[in-house]
Amino acid sequence: MTPGTVSRRLPLVWLALHRRRRMLLTLLIAMVVFEVLIVVIAGTVPTNEVFGARRTPPGAFKAFSGSSGDVSIASYPGLLGAGLTHPVWIALQLTVIGSLGAAAVAADVESGTIELLMTRPVSRRRLLAERAGALIAASVLLNAAATLAVSLGVAFSPKLRAAVPEGGVFAAGLLGCALTFCLIGPVLAVSALSRRRAHVVGAAVVLGAGGFALNFIALAWSPAGPLRYLSPFHYYAPGDALAHGGVPWTSPTVLLGVGLLGLLAAFRLLERRDLAI
C-alpha cells in the first residue's frame, strides 16, 4: 500500500501528522539524543559509585528508576529505567499527547471550524477515530525511538548487555506504549467535551506530571502509600522490565483498560454533545 493510498483512505490521520511533522521530528530527535545520553552515562559510571557506597537508596527513588519492587536506581537496569521515567521523557510524551489530543476536537471547536468540518461527509466517529489514530501512531513512534536508542546502547555495551536481558528493553518499550495509551484515552475524552485547547493540555499535564508526583509521594511517605494505585506510574515499571526481561500482565492490562475506557468515553461524549455551543 503506497503513502498516497493511505492518505486517501485515512485523510484525517495523514493530515494530523503532516501538520505537526516538524514538531514530531524534533521530538523524535530529542528523544533519541536524550536516551543515548542516558545509555552513555549508565555505561560509563560504575553503579557502586551511585549514591556513594549506599546500595539501597531511599524508597522514593523507585519512582525515578521505574521500579515497584527490588530494582535499585544504583544498578544498570535502574539507571536505564531512570531514562524512561525522567521528567524529560515525560515532557516529550506529554507534548505529543497534549498537542494532538487538543487537535482531535477541542481545537476545531475553539476556532469555530468544527461546524464547517461537519458539513462535509465526515461523521463524528470517523473524525475522532482517525485523529485518535494519528495520536496513537505518534506516541508509538516516540516510544519506538526511545526503545531503539536504548536497545542499540545495550547491544554495544558489554556491561549493560550482561545486566539487562535481551527482551527487557522491548518489554519496557511496550509498557511505555501502554502508559501513553492510558493517558491518551482520558485526554481525548476531555477534548471531546471541552471548547478550549488549554483544557486538554492541562488534562495531559495533570494526568502525566501529576500522576508521577502522586506515585513519588506515595513511595516517599508511607501513610500515602495506598495512593500509588491511583497513579499510572505505579503500573509503569520500566526498571523492573529491564531487570527481569518482562512485566506482570496485570500492569499493561490496567493501563490499557484505563485508556480504552477513556477512548470509549470520548466517542460517547462527542456523539452526545452539541458542537454549536
TrEMBL record:
Keywords: Membrane, Transmembrane, Transmembrane helix. The chain crosses the membrane at residues 24-45, 88-111, 132-156, 168-193, 200-221, 249-270. It comes from the Bacteria. This is ABC transporter permease subunit. It comes from Kitasatospora cathayae.
